[in-house]
Design a protein that fits this description.
Layout lengths: L1 H7 L3 E6 L6 E7 L2 E2 L3 E2 L6 E2 L12
């Protein structure tokens, strides 16, 4: 049972396309949503916490 709980709490790191400039942004994903705010280093756009990863284009 502990292993199932550990898997549920796992955080995945993905690179997605910035919706504003198209540069790649590293996001931390848990349960299909971004779990921390991420900032594009190119344009400064913020990908907010709780954004569904399905709404983003993976790089």
């Amino acid at each position: 049972m502990i292993n199932c709980q550990e898997a549920r709490n796992a955080i995945t790191i993905l690179e997605v396309e910035c919706p504003q400039c198209g540069d790649s942004v590293e996001v931390f994903v848990k349960d299909g949503v971004v779990c921390t705010d991420s900032v594009c280093t190119e344009c400064g756009n913020i990908i907010e916490q709780s954004t569904p990863i399905g709404d983003m284009k993976c790089v």
